[in-house]
Amino acid sequence: MNLRVVLLAAALAGCGVVIVAYKIGALGYELVPRTTEDRWSVQMQVRYRGAGDNAVARIHLPSDREPHQRIYDERIVSEGGTFDVITQDGNRVGVLAGHVGAQSTLSYRFAVHLSAREGVLPAEAEIIDGDLENGSAWLEAEQYIQSDDPRVASRLEEINAPDAGPIETVRHIHGYVTDEVADLDFGDDTDALTALQVERGGPLGKARLAVALARAAGIPARVVTGIDLEDGARSEVQHWAEVSLAGDWHALDPISGYLGSLPRQRLIVFTGDAPLLSTAAVEDLSFQLTAMKEEVSQHRLYRRRASDAGRLLDRVSLYTLPVQTQMTLRVLLLIPFGALIVALFRNMVGVPTFGTFMPVLLALAFIETSLAIGVALLLLIIGVGWVFRRLLDWLQLLMIPRLSFLLTVVILIIVGISLLSDHAGMTAGLSAAAFPIVIITATIERFSVMIVEEGPRNAAKTTAGTLLVALACYALLMSNMLQRTVLAFPELLLPVLGALLLIGRYTGYRLSEWVRFAAFKKGFKEA
Amino acid sequence: MSLWRFQTYRRVGLLGINRRNAEYILGHNPRRLFPLVDDKLATKALCRDHGIRTPDLYGTISAHHEIRDLEKMLAPHDSFVMKPASGAMGNGVLMVLKRRGDSFIRGSGAQLGIRDLRYHASSILSGLYSLGGRVDRALIEARVRVHEVFNDLGEGVPDCRVIVFRGVPVMSMLRLPTQMSDGRANLHQGAIAAGVDITTGTTHHAVHLDRVVSKHPDTGKAVRGIQLPHWDEILRISAMSADMTGLGYLGVDVVIDADEGPMLLELNARPGLSIQIANGGGLTPLLERIEKLDISGSTPKERIAMARSVFAAHRKAALGEDRAT
Ligand SMILES: Nc1ncnc2c1ncn2[C@@H]1O[C@H](COP(=O)(O)OP(=O)(O)O)[C@@H](O)[C@H]1O
Ligand SMILES: [Mg+2]
């Protein structure tokens, strides 16, 4: 092999390794950065049919003023009604007004970053007498929070020491409501007094009781409603209490038992004990809540380091970019690795594929669709497309209009799959649009020409080869670890360049030639 | 241990596709010369200037509106071949043997109407058969008539491929069409490949679909020991093609017309590797010997002589090696 190429490749690989080693050794990077933040994609969907003139659904939208949750990319799609966001009692409320007999839907999507809330209650000494900054409104009795009821006062006396300070009082209330009041799975609308009397309650009942006890003790308190996010459709609405101490609100969660802090996956939606969704004059109401978790690398830490440090290598860190860009770059940076795999398979193994980078593009699509569904959808699209292509043969169309026709057919197939799967209630098919449509069209054309020109066996072989390489690329691109590592060390692309140079000058046999020249396996000596 | 077969390949001197691409094609065939061989009309023009015969050109179709004149263009001819100017691997080659009434009879016996021919022409123009789907031209040329030595060796015209390196013929094979290959002499379409002794022009070995055969599968006639007529002329055409194109590593396809003798059919700047299977031997040792020759200022005739001596030397070395092992 060409010495210059080998030296250049070695130099590239060496540079990459040296930079990585320096960043790890001197700058304290981790080879595989840990994740510390959670990024969620959440979707709330409300659907109803108007049953009266004032058909309306009101849904609380998540609070955008919490320091530990950052909401962005909000997208609202409403149909068959008018949609407005209003502010009510300091909360954001989405109002979807519909018409009699008409179907109204609202799909509200957003992405949110949740970071750990490691709060602690202040020390007793920090409390100044008469600390009511958060307003006396949070001390008054309400319809379901009967803090002025004598039974509440007497229970408070039972569980609290007579000379306890506010912190101690909060701890006592928390201990009592969490441990002594039993959990109910249902009966979300228990009021404070009922919960107190039967010593049982759901999340809302227990939260109301905690608030009532705190208010009775002269500590401003309120109910907060939120969602415990879980991957899939299992997210649950949660209620808990917040008490105001030394001018700050502190969480008191009588269900999960948190005090001063909250579970990490908790999304705070609004304050108050109103329901998350309320409606009037509607029928056939459905409400769906889905959440999807995505991991984000330790970007904040690196970002801080990048902006503080004077060193050039820190400055050019990709962590200084917006998160959205980082998410894109994470996949983008892996594409050269995918291309490397393609080069390996094609030039060293000799696997035939449709188009050079088709496998990489397919792998990218599979990431969107998930693997099994992606492969199934792909084969479906190509299969149906091929049938149409056969029919077109019959009409004897010129190539460009024929390809354009086929392209349109492919798009129609994808639209059809999306519609069908939506009707069947399967979200899986909706991802069909992720496929690179133009390239799929070209593949269908090449596939059908290949069947005619080189026989179905070759066409099947090439299809299998394409899928095989796509799967290999997929496995690589999906590697979360690799994604994080390459984002932290983009210089790893230098060794990739080196490897590509080496493959580019590899003049040995391809593995496929093992079979192709099988006639020579004994040296081909003739009689 | 699992790679012992590659060891054998290396000993035989089999040229693999990576090495062919990296050393011979990238190293000896400048990109700018490719259009000369990728476009059959350009090759034809080049041949005319250098006194090399090619099948008569009946006409070309370069634009869709010219398809209307197809019928007029074909009127004087009973048999012809329509093919893409920049096709490859036999794709899109349509051979008409004769007419019957209004229809045309293909090599395979299938009947076509003028409508089918028009559609075929338009598929060619829109690039269906060209590399990368680029717009193409269709050419209609005389059908080469089979020479009598190829009687009973299948329907269609055998073509003779000669690999030429630095102007020196290296290795040759005869491709015999079969029913399976529909009259076309392309190997992966099912044609037979018979290795031709470069010094004498006789076939010495043959494979069909990568398996060694001695008889034609359709007719049962022996495919070894066929002496190609006009062998010296075939070698001359091959050696001259290198001069005329400037390509260092070249595949020259020659057909032998019953009356007119050898004609150049097409040139290939990326000739395939199956010729080694057809000959039961590798290209590398021959190529390496030719690499060492001083060819500056040599005439085609001199290089044909070199080809013969290179082959003789190689055979001697191979025999010696055999005895030693
Ligand atoms: N003028 C012709 N007369 C007879 N047979 C032909 C003619 N042109 C092509 N063929 C047949 O078709 C095959 C492929 O044609 P060729 O011109 O070599 O195109 P390709 O570049 O596609 O290989 C030839 O090997 C030969 O058997
Ligand atoms: Mg050919």
Structural description of this entry:
Chain A is of the alpha+beta class. Chain A has helices spanning 3-25, 150-159, 166-180, 192-198, 203-216, 299-308, 312-315, 323-332, 335-349, 358-369, 371-395, 399-423, 437-477, 480-488, 493-504, 511-516; strands at 35-50, 56-61, 69-79, 82-88, 91-97, 103-114, 182-183, 200-201, 221-228, 236-245, 248-252, 266-271, 277-280, 282-297. Chain A has a 4-stranded antiparallel β-sheet, with no helix packed on it. Chain B is built from 10 helices and 13 strands. In chain B, the strands form 2 sheets. Chain B has a 7-stranded antiparallel β-sheet. Chain B is 33% helix and 23% strand. In chain B, β10 and β11 (211-212) form a beta hairpin. Magnesium ion (MG) binds next to loops of chain B.
Protein traits:
heterodimer, A: 527 residues, alpha+beta, C8orf32 fold, four-stranded antiparallel sheet, B: 325 residues, D-amino Acid Aminotransferase, Chain A, domain 1, Dna Ligase, domain 1, 2 domains, 10 helices, 13 strands, binds adenosine-5'-diphosphate, binds magnesium ion
Oligomer: heterodimer
Adjacency order of strands in the biggest sheet of chain B: 11-10-9-8-7-12-13
- Determine the structural class of chain B based on helices, strands and strand pairing: alpha+beta
Distance, first to last CA of chain B: 20 Å
Strand content of chain A: 15-25%
Taking strands numbered 1, 2, ... along the chain, how are they ordered across the largest sheet of chain A?
Answer: 3-6-1-14
Q: What does this entry show, briefly?
A:
Chain A has 16 helices and 14 strands. Chain A is an alpha+beta fold and 527 residues long.
Chart the SSEs and their pairings.
The complex is a heterodimer of chains A (527) and B (325).
Chain A: H1 3-25, E1 35-50, E2 56-61, E3 69-79, E4 82-88, E5 91-97, E6 103-114, H2 150-159, H3 166-180, E7 182-183, H4 192-198, E8 200-201, H5 203-216, E9 221-228, E10 236-245, E11 248-252, E12 266-271, E13 277-280, E14 282-297, H6 299-308, H7 312-315, H8 323-332, H9 335-349, H10 358-369, H11 371-395, H12 399-423, H13 437-477, H14 480-488, H15 493-504, H16 511-516
Parallel strand pairs in A: 7-8
Antiparallel strand pairs in A: 1-6, 1-14, 2-5, 2-13, 3-6, 4-5, 9-10, 9-12, 10-11
Helix pairs in contact in A: 1-15, 3-5, 4-5, 8-14, 9-13, 9-15, 10-11, 10-13, 11-12, 11-13, 12-13
Chain B: H1 4-12, H2 17-28, H3 34-38, H4 40-49, E1 57-61, H5 70-74, E2 80-84, E3 94-100, E4 103-106, E5 111-112, H6 114-125, E6 138-142, E7 159-165, E8 168-176, E9 192-196, E10 203-208, E11 211-212, H7 231-245, E12 249-257, E13 261-268, H8 275-279, H9 284-292, H10 300-324
Antiparallel strand pairs in B: 1-6, 2-3, 2-6, 3-4, 4-5, 7-8, 7-12, 8-9, 9-10, 10-11, 12-13
The complex binds adenosine-5'-diphosphate (ADP) and magnesium ion.
Magnesium ion binds at residues 253, 266 of chain B.
